[in-house]
Amino acid sequence: MNRRVPRWRRLAAMATLGALAAARPAAADQPLWELGLGLATLRVPHYRGSEQSHQWLLPLPYVIYRGDILRSDREGARALLLDGERADFDLSLGAGPPASSRDNRARAGMPDLAPTLEFGPKLNLHLGRGPGWRLDLRLPLRAAFTVRRPVQHIGWVANPVLNLDLKRDGWNIGLQGGPLYASRRNNAFTYDVDAAFATASRSEFHSQGGYAGWGLTASLARRAGDWWLGGFVRADSVAGARFAASPLVTQRQTLSIGLGASWIFRVSDERVGDTR
């Protein structure tokens, strides 16, 4: 396992684990903020459609903030602009790790993939709820940028998902899945092969925009005293994607796994109601 992980890989990996596996608060009276720190182990593909994976042991910060507008929880960091019984609307963030071409056989000799940052609006429709469960339809649309100089806009991504939250015997269970769509520029960033990098085993390829496969995530988490425990499993498929014929796609289905634990060492004295 490679423990010498560049800073942006650490940030993107921690953001991935936090966004997918953090528990949704269940009680009506919660601290305004909570801080903790722990460790996580994470196995994720270099990129969707890659047969090779990163395996990391990483510090795992636990940061919860339940403000009226700014929030940080299992849905990630976001700014809540509209909150209603039937729907809410927020601005959300996402991040993607880099991939070194030295470590990826399919990309050997090509430029490295830079880390990425995504942000944009997300509409959440509340389809139903009851004791111990909630079903939402989430409709995010994010612009994507590289995190390097000069910053490059690499198109947009959309991932409409059905999200089911369950609470059973102290465990918070999340199930989420749906298709992915991306612009031509976004697909090209990862899957294009320019003529200068074509070889006998890697043909020139230029992506199109549109359908980019699907993803399905299951997460499990709980609060046990001063400890938070969580994990997730995510299955991704690029079968039928507009870039599926790229020679950089070496595996149609990939699996990501993460496990983590954090010790919560500071909790706000101020309490807020959780109406979500």
Task: Describe it.
With 276 residues, this protein is mainly beta. The protein has a single domain, classed as Porin (Beta Barrel), CATH 2.40.160.40. The protein is 8% helix and 55% strand. Strands 2, 3, 4, 5, 6, 7, 8, 9, 10, 11, 12, 13 and 14 form a 13-stranded antiparallel beta sheet that branches. A two-stranded antiparallel ribbon has the order 1-15. The longest helix is centred in the N-terminal third of the chain and has 15 residues, at 7-21. The radius of gyration is 19 Å and the shape is globular. Residues 1-5 and 16-27 have low confidence and may be disordered.
Question: What would you say about this model in short?
Answer:
With 276 residues, the chain is mostly beta strands. The chain has helices at residues 7-21, 184-191; strands at residues 29-31, 33-45, 53-66, 70-73, 76-83, 87-96, 116-130, 133-146, 153-158, 161-168, 171-182, 210-224, 227-237, 253-267, 271-273.
